[in-house]
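Researcher: We're teaching a course module on how sequence relates to structure. For the next exercise, students receive a sequence and then see the predicted structure as tokens, so they can try to spot secondary structure elements on their own. Here is the exercise chain.
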Amino acid sequence: MHLAPNFYPILFSAEQAPNFLMHSSLRQNAKRIFCVSNAARACRGSDVKISDASDSSDDEYQMDIDDEELSFKDKLLVTDISDLTEMCKSKCDTKYLSTLLYMSLRFFKIKREHVDEYLKSISFMTAETSDKWATVFIKGDYEEFSNDLRGGKQIDSFCVTFPKIEADAKAFVVQACSQKSGEFKALDLAQFIDENYYELTGIKKQNGDDLIRSERSCHLVLRRSGAKFEANSQRPYFEGHERDDVVKHRNEFINYFLAHRDFYII
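Model: And here is the predicted structure for the students to work with:
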């Protein structure tokens, strides 16, 4: 596989929170009403912005979607859910998300053991822990629930602190995705970053230490960089790498080095 010459994946840059624009098309001369929940007020210190009424147009917000419904029986969907989980955890505390999802699933009378299995599969808190926090939220002290912020570990400044590792990781991904074996996984990237981190810092890794960048976060990194995961092999590839101009460029590049191989042999 070969990437287009102008493709440079951004592996570690933190994504800015989107600006949410709320549109309402009401009767002529009708009064616009915007309801802001307590949860939104709590996020005023974050990057999330809610636009003023003057910024809104009279056009309804529309999304281009396919008529075909998603197959929620597809096992690959769990991977997509996990990626979305990582995105949510970077914006909101894991405890809040786990408790909300746990309470929602239990509301629909899904057995606790099934809920526990699902929460673990997407790297959320266990059902037991989520149940305890749900109890605190419903029957306990709201301040106790809201002030204990221990979830959602983030390493957004990693690329700023270790730019060399970021550059090496980009090259590693490009090389790995160019192989035809299709065996490249997000875990490979996580392990590559881990090895380079300890080599660069000189720190000795202790038994039981977690990866510097988790497999889940690296999976999301690949997705942000344009990678697609196919159901048959879970091998990521980058859109556009099979275009005619890219194939031509790749062949010219390889043929040049083959023609001048004597200059590169030691």
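Model: If you want an answer key for the exercise: The CA atoms of residues 68 and 74 lie 14 Å apart. The longest helix spans residues 76-91.
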